[in-house]
Protein 1
Amino acid sequence: MSETRPIALDAMGGDHAPHEIVAGAVHAVRERGLQVVLVGSPRVLYEALTDHDATKEVPIVRAEEALAMDEGALASLRRPRSSIAVACHLVRRGDAGAIVSAGSTAGIVATGRLRLKAQQGVLRPAIAVALPTRPKPTLLLDAGANAEAKPEMLVQFAHLGAAYAELAYDIEDPRVGLLTIGSEAEKGNKLVKRAYELLQGSPGLQFAGNVEGHDLLTGKVDVITTDGFTGNVALKTMEGTVRYAFTELREAISGSRPARLGAFMQRSRIRELRRRLDAEAYGGAVLLGLNGTVVIAHGSSKAQGISAACQLAADLSAEGIVARIGDRIAATGRSHRLW
Amino acid sequence: MSETRPIALDAMGGDHAPHEIVAGAVHAVRERGLQVVLVGSPRVLYEALTDHDATKEVPIVRAEEALAMDEGALASLRRPRSSIAVACHLVRRGDAGAIVSAGSTAGIVATGRLRLKAQQGVLRPAIAVALPTRPKPTLLLDAGANAEAKPEMLVQFAHLGAAYAELAYDIEDPRVGLLTIGSEAEKGNKLVKRAYELLQGSPGLQFAGNVEGHDLLTGKVDVITTDGFTGNVALKTMEGTVRYAFTELREAISGSRPARLGAFMQRSRIRELRRRLDAEAYGGAVLLGLNGTVVIAHGSSKAQGISAACQLAADLSAEGIVARIGDRIAATGRSHRLW
């Protein structure tokens, strides 16, 4: 039963590893009732757990190596005993249901592809990011796992995202948009023009046509499919623009005396809003399409973020996201013979 | 002397054509001392000029057709007598120094390519957009003229942008960044990896390496080169994110009573800031690389925006942007034989 398998939590990845990761594990176990296994250096982790008086609540699995935050895909392949590699091993063996890591995205993707392998029929795994639209998030994928993509991959990313939207956010028959540079069918580069044709005929998909950059945060569709290059540029552009807008805002409201007063009163709300936008822009990134789900927490995650990522991983695992994706891809393959 | 040639202003393009366009022309002539020729339906334009008592100050050149805002590239090619086509003709004949249009971008690009032709050695014209960084803008190009690009084009876009930065913003030896998905040289898709190599060896260019989406608004570089697909997605993502951030902000500051009071005091400043960000995100879009400069004003431009666009067109024309680009491209071609 996937429901009862613990989350394998990479304790060595992230800017605040291992202490905030361990604190997140303890929070997930005590406050959320989740099962979590910490993967990393036993000595270090045991000490950290001792600080929380939690050595009996959170088991440790040994991994003596860790990927540095700036280590990329190649380095990760050279480290079969890294914490993320060991976490993958736990999932393959059936000892864990899903993985959470705040480590280097490139390292997680490379290790995951090598050690978990793509699901049958899946051409490439993709990173799905939940954008902070309302009432439900819009899922953008691929947010950076693949710098190059083929039209058939964009169709699969749509299905990966649709499965995620259904299971994690209870969205029935998710609307899927194709990110391009104009709303008409013929707009875009060769990749998206061909993807448009394929998406129109893909079974089990409510294809809503093209969307543009300004539609990312309007909630116009539930899933937006794009190649990992465009998706990553768009995601980081959003992040940078939010920062820019708030910096400009701070200057605008500190310019006059009554405005300063107003700013004082609103400071905490604005700070709260900014934090929400910053966190949510990257929150809930999930690597989909492998034989096992990997939740990629933001590198700067602290205990609360890690705990929330464990909840997302547990939910996706319990809902059977891998099986749901498998069904969708199989249905697509049967009617279209895309590969 | 290019300095004395008037601006050919497409009076029929834009959401508020022809009245706001005509008002912009009158403003440019009276307040800025520019020479402007209105291109469009003489009867309509004469009437509009009469309202400003300006029939003797602004000449009219007849063009009986106009491109609708939703007409794209193909339609524009079928209309040799459209206002934008006639404006191009004036520049080719030497009767105008540059063009301003608030019409359909796709139509302007297609008509400009057909009727003005690319400058010698220029593979493709590109749209440059000035992003609202400080103290000087960062120029992003291509913002959407070419959905597909080759590595050599990205090098040329860098030179087009550098010439624009030098002439319009007095930036000496502009720093050029390549938009991709990681700061290391090997990050990105095939297009940008090859462009990176070519940019490193391009004469007269201060190549500062890769930049990412979150660098677009930080002023880290003066010119950012990218293909028109990625550039357009990034630009529209910025626009959408600014709108989103301000909508969220409005909700955040109207939630509590003291906050409402603060909001009241700050309302005008916030509105002012939002307007600036919205306008500047698209303001100053210029189609570069043709035998003649075309300033693409925002479709929703009113008189002030049109007048400012005429000023930009006059400045670029007077400074000899076409010749400057020609020099740069010639120098690149001699040392590298890219084509």
Protein 2
Amino acid sequence: MASGANGQGVGAGALLAILRDGRARTRGELARLTGLSRSTVTQRLDGLIDQRWVVAGEDSISSGGRPAGVFAFNGGARAVFAADLGATHARLAVLDLSMNVLAERAAELPVEQGPERTLCQVADVLSDLLATTGLDPAQVCGVGVGLPGPVEHGSGRPVNPPIMPGWDGFAVPEWLQGRLGAPVLVDNDVNIMALGEHWAAGPAVDPLIYVKIGTGIGSGIVSGGRLHRGAQGAAGDVGHIRVTGSLAPCRCGNAGCLEAVAGGASMAAALRAAGIEAAGSRDVVALMRAGDLTATRLVRQAGREVGAVMASIVNFFNPSVIVLGGDVAEAGEQVLAGVRETIYSRSLPLATQHLAIRASELGDRAGIVGAAVMVAEHVLAPSAIDRQIAG
Amino acid sequence: MASGANGQGVGAGALLAILRDGRARTRGELARLTGLSRSTVTQRLDGLIDQRWVVAGEDSISSGGRPAGVFAFNGGARAVFAADLGATHARLAVLDLSMNVLAERAAELPVEQGPERTLCQVADVLSDLLATTGLDPAQVCGVGVGLPGPVEHGSGRPVNPPIMPGWDGFAVPEWLQGRLGAPVLVDNDVNIMALGEHWAAGPAVDPLIYVKIGTGIGSGIVSGGRLHRGAQGAAGDVGHIRVTGSLAPCRCGNAGCLEAVAGGASMAAALRAAGIEAAGSRDVVALMRAGDLTATRLVRQAGREVGAVMASIVNFFNPSVIVLGGDVAEAGEQVLAGVRETIYSRSLPLATQHLAIRASELGDRAGIVGAAVMVAEHVLAPSAIDRQIAG
């Protein structure tokens, strides 16, 4: 998007991209930043104001003695539907394009009901939420959905999702668009959480790796401001990396996977083997919070195992930050301590000197924020804005 | 580089970027591809022809019954100096911008002589080579240099290079530009080899990981057509990833690093411990080629160790291809077999289904081709071309 000194190629979309940081700017500032003439800036701002992407501020700031109007991104002009679906629970929300949550609801919503029943409920709740905001359905510019399984990037359809019976190949975007009347973008839940955390951390924090430790373990990678998906869209699957000294069988068919020693399901199984009742990751966390020593030791050791895997990835990828999220990781400092302990002892000093390893900033809102970010990137892409204003 | 339907923002540089694939195209084809009007295409082509970036072909192809001139990228109009420096040897070359090697020389050139003596010889050899091509120094549009150590991306200066005494912080670009009169770009040798292999494989092969197994072990990562450098420029350092079941001391100060069990220097040490004379990686390779069983077993096992590390990285990064280069890897099929054996048994089927694991295509030319690619990307960047033609 870098412009020549003559502003060639700087359309209204590029102007809006500058304003998206939230700072209001004068015509003169925008002319300087883009190389466009003031008259062209004015013309492009008119188009953006016309479409309500930009508001002319009431404020004026002094510029060479003359008061000059300022212009700002109007994040509140449009709304986004966001749905973050887990195996049994979902978080649904309406946000604006500045990522303010206008309404939200957590709901019990098992995906094993199949796609139509689940998505029907999703659409109903989202419509209810919109009504509470007083916004008009025409203001909804897109729908972002995170699903707990692999999603084909081009089509937005689930691909052999292990815990979503009936969803394989289901046309989620088309189905939901038919119900909600806005374009629908779908991705894997861990990917959208990574996007959400990257948005919260700010664009300078890059590359970012988000690791979710819940029932299973997965990660999402943001590099150069975009999701790194890999050649087959399979990138980030750290849960099935082999760890040292374990032959624990894994649900993937291999043995010794990280998930099989450090995932919430495996810890619950280990507790049961020790005669302690625990059905899943939430019970493990509850036991640890209640001071159960076996659970606490298990969680700490899980942190070390995750750290051992991430230490290799730090050497390879040199991230700026590793964000830990999910039930187990958010339960307290035991996981974080274990991860840090191992990474700092094993990775290269150059790669860890400025590396931040920290808990999720957004917690269980990471998914809905990420889903809204995904929609915003699509709707506010400079070429999309240029097309809209030219049309 | 996507254009709006009206060709807004498509400058001469964007037109040249389309032609860089080597295919000649008519004005009509270029107008269709860019959305520009034919008259604008003609005007931009005139500028490109004027600067000799484009040639009008003699050929004509039928288009609606009328013969139409074709236009092609003129890769031969400029030359690039390329220098790939190893610890003791260097490869120096003159290439054109279509990556044709016009002249090259391998030279003994120990970097431990220090920067000024070494770079003096580099400049002399490059000037000699240029003279043999009959090209004029004014045609040299840039110099690409690979160094056997870490290089700060912004400045092109070595940063604490372990095997390059006297080079720390030395202003390599400024020094060489003073001697050769063209802009100089410097990067780590493994990074430029990765760029070279990515060029040879073609843009569709992405992401690509190039692993160099020589005295030490390192890797270069190309993703989205660009080098992935990481937050501190330390990405790709796979040689110091901890491997299972080893406590072998490593020159980095840690123990059990991949390089300490699978690098050429460590294998030579293992051979010496078994009473077999071997000074370095080249001797290991020579022994293996001569049928020495101990050397052959060591190399095969080294392949397995590299494979174990790369198996984790395949799950995390989902590359399209892993290219193996360097003395040891290029010595035969033992390394390749070991790497494949381990990756296919440990990584996820989705990530390995289409994964290619193969030997370097360019061999010891990967560095000079990559250095020339680095210069070409810089010189032919659309914004650089736009500026040149506007000026």
Protein 3
Amino acid sequence: MDIEVQDTYKEKAMKQLHIDAEKIAKLIKVQMDNLTMPQCPLYEEVLDTQMYGLSREIDFAVKLGLVEQEKGREILALLEKELNVLHELYTKK
Amino acid sequence: MDIEVQDTYKEKAMKQLHIDAEKIAKLIKVQMDNLTMPQCPLYEEVLDTQMYGLSREIDFAVKLGLVEQEKGREILALLEKELNVLHELYTKK
């Protein structure tokens, strides 16, 4: 396999996953800024749905061999950390 | 870009999307065989979640340039047709 092309798709995949993870963080931040309570079931549902969508993208990328499983887990773990920080900031308001 | 390698990832992507679409059809068939009513909210929720997951995979593949948008739409449309047939068969039982 041509290593250069392999890297192009791999880079694209990682970039897109990071964009999508960041989109979730932004969405949650907007919800918090607009005072939608984290205890609200709708908030939890939106978050669950978005996290599920992202994890499906990651699984897909891993199955295609574009992203290592460990890297995929890292993206989700980082996002969860970010959401926890946001959540903490929000509840301290 | 090396056309051969491009095709490998593209083929893998299409193959994986078809596998995942077929998985949804099978899941729904199992639910119907076990007499879980299509009117049941849980059935609808499972179906919605699975369809959402697949559409996220397709969007991801399209964004990476692995799958053409039209092909992605076709996969979803074919699955919907298949589910409609299953649904019809079930309600005629």
Protein 4
Amino acid sequence: MSRNALKMVTIGGGSSYTPELIEGYIKRQDQLPIKEIWLVDIPEGEKKLNIVGNMAKRMVKAAGLDWEVHLTLDRREALKDADFVSTQFRVGLLEARVKDERIPGSYGLLGQETNGAGGIFKAFRTVPVILDIVKDMKDLCPNAWLINFTNPSGMITEAIQQYGKWDKVIGLCNVPVMAMMNEPATIGKELKDLTYKFAGIDHFHWHRVWDNSGKEVTMDIINKMYDGSETGLPKNIFDVKFFREQLNQMKMIPCGYHRYYYRQTEMLNHSLEEFNQNKTRAQEVMRIEHELFTLYQDSNLDHKPKQLAERGGAHYSDAACEAIASIYGDKKTHMVVSTLNHGALPDLPSDHTVEVSSIITASGALPLTFGHFQPAESGWIQLMKNMELVIDQAAVTGDYGLALQAFIMNPLIPSGQAAKDLLDEMLVANKKYLPQFADKIKELEDQ
Amino acid sequence: MSRNALKMVTIGGGSSYTPELIEGYIKRQDQLPIKEIWLVDIPEGEKKLNIVGNMAKRMVKAAGLDWEVHLTLDRREALKDADFVSTQFRVGLLEARVKDERIPGSYGLLGQETNGAGGIFKAFRTVPVILDIVKDMKDLCPNAWLINFTNPSGMITEAIQQYGKWDKVIGLCNVPVMAMMNEPATIGKELKDLTYKFAGIDHFHWHRVWDNSGKEVTMDIINKMYDGSETGLPKNIFDVKFFREQLNQMKMIPCGYHRYYYRQTEMLNHSLEEFNQNKTRAQEVMRIEHELFTLYQDSNLDHKPKQLAERGGAHYSDAACEAIASIYGDKKTHMVVSTLNHGALPDLPSDHTVEVSSIITASGALPLTFGHFQPAESGWIQLMKNMELVIDQAAVTGDYGLALQAFIMNPLIPSGQAAKDLLDEMLVANKKYLPQFADKIKELEDQ
Amino acid sequence: MSRNALKMVTIGGGSSYTPELIEGYIKRQDQLPIKEIWLVDIPEGEKKLNIVGNMAKRMVKAAGLDWEVHLTLDRREALKDADFVSTQFRVGLLEARVKDERIPGSYGLLGQETNGAGGIFKAFRTVPVILDIVKDMKDLCPNAWLINFTNPSGMITEAIQQYGKWDKVIGLCNVPVMAMMNEPATIGKELKDLTYKFAGIDHFHWHRVWDNSGKEVTMDIINKMYDGSETGLPKNIFDVKFFREQLNQMKMIPCGYHRYYYRQTEMLNHSLEEFNQNKTRAQEVMRIEHELFTLYQDSNLDHKPKQLAERGGAHYSDAACEAIASIYGDKKTHMVVSTLNHGALPDLPSDHTVEVSSIITASGALPLTFGHFQPAESGWIQLMKNMELVIDQAAVTGDYGLALQAFIMNPLIPSGQAAKDLLDEMLVANKKYLPQFADKIKELEDQ
Amino acid sequence: MSRNALKMVTIGGGSSYTPELIEGYIKRQDQLPIKEIWLVDIPEGEKKLNIVGNMAKRMVKAAGLDWEVHLTLDRREALKDADFVSTQFRVGLLEARVKDERIPGSYGLLGQETNGAGGIFKAFRTVPVILDIVKDMKDLCPNAWLINFTNPSGMITEAIQQYGKWDKVIGLCNVPVMAMMNEPATIGKELKDLTYKFAGIDHFHWHRVWDNSGKEVTMDIINKMYDGSETGLPKNIFDVKFFREQLNQMKMIPCGYHRYYYRQTEMLNHSLEEFNQNKTRAQEVMRIEHELFTLYQDSNLDHKPKQLAERGGAHYSDAACEAIASIYGDKKTHMVVSTLNHGALPDLPSDHTVEVSSIITASGALPLTFGHFQPAESGWIQLMKNMELVIDQAAVTGDYGLALQAFIMNPLIPSGQAAKDLLDEMLVANKKYLPQFADKIKELEDQ
Ligand SMILES: [Mn+2]
Ligand SMILES: [Mn+2]
Ligand SMILES: [Mn+2]
Ligand SMILES: [Mn+2]
């Protein structure tokens, strides 16, 4: 690492989230001796890249910093000698998200981009691209750290490690961040006075909490979930309460996404309602994005607008900055990240990615052990983790049988002919981004 | 064991399957020096016990054997000094099965007595009774073997071992038996020339097959499943084909019950069709039973009528006789039984029950190792086995939160308010047989 | 916990180490609102208790603190409502250590009190006493934390958790402390700029180190071990170099005690040399102790004398104070402690004690995952951990067969008749402290 | 496989054991349609090959069989289209064994060719050769089965699977065979009426036994070990009794080689006694071999002479024939073989070789599960298995650090400078057969 002149690269730099990232860097200017920030995007994103890139330049200037902000479509130029690479791209742009939400919806199934059929296809599209980035990194910046927050973050991180053979990676999500931002207040505490232990996989984890007298306060927080307190659900998740009797037995706090699995019917109904009213999340996001980019075009705007907080991914970028600062500064901060299990969750294989409370050091994430789950949670997590493995393997090989196995395993897709038809329709609809499935797609088109 | 004068006890002796059991004993008269057969039932089953018991006496007599056949309502009298105890009772009789099938059906869910909500409740009703029997056995026949084929056979066997602390038990099912009876012919082979390796849990296992030249013939059998060959599906399971691409990837043969999980939609639709036509399996079974008991009443009938083969449980009793003969004679036969894992399936904990190819010796079942599953099957089996553990724990403790967790985990019950309502309705409807849930049921009734 | 008026209890308060403990408390007076310090000992230790206890009072007074220092022979009075209990007693006093060193020596074997035959007997004597203390704690101070530094610290901690069923325990050792005190300077670093990861069991662990740029510096430290740098070997261990080729392959730093296993012959020879010159460690310690207590008797002495640093256990008590302050203050300090594995070392069972880098919080130690060992270290640690389990089980049950198994497993005791004779001689010699082996000892005496 | 005209190949065909192998084939002539037997050896063994090869021809002829017996020095010619390949070669001939026994002896250490330093060097010499054979087999007879009884049989089998990536292999040893031949009579039983369960690794396993009423008779057999009954110790192992108290605790029967570990001192003393009298086993074997080859030269001799039974490896070849017949005939015989664990011993990794009771089918060995060991045996076996892995890795890579780690781990080699000197001396002494260590050996020679 060029320790006194850091080169930071963001793939998908034209994202509307970039101002949060820039703000995150600016907040940590004392911790991070940045020299260059490279925002990379693809030709289809050039216009947005320029808008948000100029906004970034104004933000840096307003902060009185001499950091260079480079905008480029040349990924390899950007990656050359990079110190930290963060990824926030979306293969196929929001149009792909529309498909992830609307095609399942047309089958009466959940349309969501990290769970169900949509999540599987987001992985199928993204894995080949991330592996390509890793290939470039091996060539151009073999000592850099990769901070991934492209979704589905857990599966992408798994692919980077298992198939990309790249260990210097940390996967991020804003869900634990938001829980830790909102929950302490519900029990009259501050985060610094609590010990959080998260365990699971991305978008499917639980946590327990202790106060600074050693008392477990998990059930106190759970109780607050039923009196209307804000406990940190991301904006993109419909709020239906968990069954209290279930949490009383579990004695852990599920993540927001568990709603899809623990209240499947209600979440599906809500999704279909939106589908029928033509107002899926992708469309809502398009509206917000339009509004954001209109703002970003204002050459007087030189700070992150508050509207950005409405996006489901708020705090992702800030988490990325914190991870980067922790690695660079060997801060030993507690963060919840996707990293190799190494025994932290003995119910899962030690050589695969989990999302778990970790200490972030200069040599990466050191997970804290969590110990065994009770049988119900053990069964769920073993299913879900193995499903991730099947999805990644399908994404890498383009094996149709594996893709079908993933659809059949997925708890949010009732198996059967309709599920297979959905798989086939989505393959064809995503043709442009699924080179690995080209033969099968051709076969489907020829029918 | 009284090695030259065996006392065989069957709990649920009034079952229509008893003639198959008696026939099984008669076939093995050279292997089993039986002195007494005790058929035990409860007062509600007395009439059937007498009918089928007399039929059993005629069968024994017709075979020229001097075995004593005792009919009794006094379980403890029967268990005293027993050598082998087999269980084929149904708590709540067929009326309970009607509820297992019709209440879920009324919620638009699968009505089936070993899978979905019905299977869970069959376990809830049966576990307390079987633990009571084990308690009696510890007292009255501590050296006896317990051969369980009461469903859900795997969970009952698990409860006997984990909660009853009774190791001399073997759990049986006819599904592997029927596969091994029917599949060899489809590839022009005989069973004796093949090596079968089954692995999984009861009603959720897979198998692989090799011929006597060492060549794996699993895919050959799979291919035959698509040309109309009879591969041994029990009578009670609707036949919808597995997706060929799935099996090509899996390279194992799923059991018949996998249809509920791999073709969930089609199986549900078929179940609901029957539900809407008022012709669920329980009713079909009642019809067959009526027909069978009419036959059994014929004082000239002294052999098993062919109509018995129409019941889904055909070959169960014969498997029980074979297990008994193998234990008694230390025959080292290959059988597929529910027994302690002990490492045979390294993806599952070694101290819990699995259903696996085993060698049956005088000291019980010695499982053959199977090795690791691929991720898809590993995920499924870990979910399902853990669900069994949750169900058994709920059945023993009467903990409502655990019961709810089981409903939410079950892949055949979409989670949500309706699932909880279904749970509550079934608790109340099964009140008579669920003393462990008495408090919760009272609370539900009081609402 | 009485959060503003802590009651600290030390069993074995008459130890010569007590001034270090008191100094440790005084150093942390801002972190620990101590009200009472209770020093407990047995009648045989009363004289020392009074000497060192009065010294402690002077130290507290000199520090200008109003803490009450109580000296007592009544353990139950002391334990009543305690907040923290630390243990530094030695069952059988130094006389027992003499036997641990001299009886094996007379067989030509290593005489050492935490390894070989001596270590086994120290466990045999100590386990019953510590379990008795735990029993009192359950009764008198069920919310207290137990900080154990009585040796063999790992086995004692294991016994407290497995047999005492007491979870609020942390086991300590000064070996990791001294490594972290001395090694950084050898590579021109400070501890705060390094990340240490220790893994293993007490007196048999390894560690790896990274600097604050993420670079692993383990090999740099190893290289310094061969140029004469002081890397922190406790005073009681004879210094013979590890084979460099071995460490090059291992790429981890062994603990000082590994010398007994990696350079068995040289360590044995040195031990026997001392044995033959009648100068075993116990005798050396007696000399130091005598000197120390002479000093302590000086009513003008009110601070820890520098001579205490010559004892092998230096820094133990300070580590105990730091653990206490970390728990009390939820400091999330990194410490290396004996605690439940929980997956940190996936090569060892998750429900047993290991010594591992942990974050110390108000709810106890949270181990950092270490991941799998290479085969050589994996084999060693599995042998040693299982030996600990055998020893603890023998210590609890008094089973002679288990004691013999422990002797036979122990890599420092060549198995055979002499080993058995040694076992028998040590049983008889320790008769007074081994009630659990009473029957066997009687049998041996009767021969 | 050429199912009706088998080609059998034996590498090391000039061995004095060959007549036992030929006799084994002849005994199984009805089970094995042999067409050709190829005996292969190296030029140094040509003379013996001719003697024993002609003896083999006479044996076949005397049995009235038309099998072709080919003698060749061309391994590739022999391997072409082979069906079964068995290996009984000794790299470096008996001269190497002399070194394995005498060099350690000169250091006051055990001289034995499968345990201690000798066993490690036998592995170092043999692994490269067996991997070369496997390479030829991939090329010339990719469907053949490899039946290995070259020692150290377990490590060689492990190397074949792990490094040779060859799965169609079975490793054999005569120790379990002899136990099963001799033990039943001691308790008045026949083998066919007992169930044996062996578990461990080659030359380090235990077993338990049940009779045909299901009663465990392990302790009955153990009791007989103390009244002078012959329980099957191979001829090459000095007989010193196990400690009865140890076996009483263990409740398993150790294998003969456990003496080296459980009675280390006595075995070492006996070995040194022989060493000092210049009568190590290699020399004894040379004497027997000389006698045997003198017999074999007798052109009238056409059956296996009884003197062959005096060799330690008696029954190895017969076991090989039985394994071959079981594979060919899909006999599902119970045999104790080295094969992949697959969960049979859950204390060891599932993807490494263990020696375990298995059912031998046409598709190979199916291990029977054994379940967890108690802690003492668990610790031992984990040490020993990991030592095997270290030895194999050293044998493949020629890494001196790994070789040193193996020496240090080995319970029969006290670690220290002398152990390192021994390692170095043995490397140089075995130079001719250790190409993988060439650099290190040169370095040693240059010193
Ligand atoms: Mn996320
Ligand atoms: Mn069944
Ligand atoms: Mn220590
Ligand atoms: Mn052998």
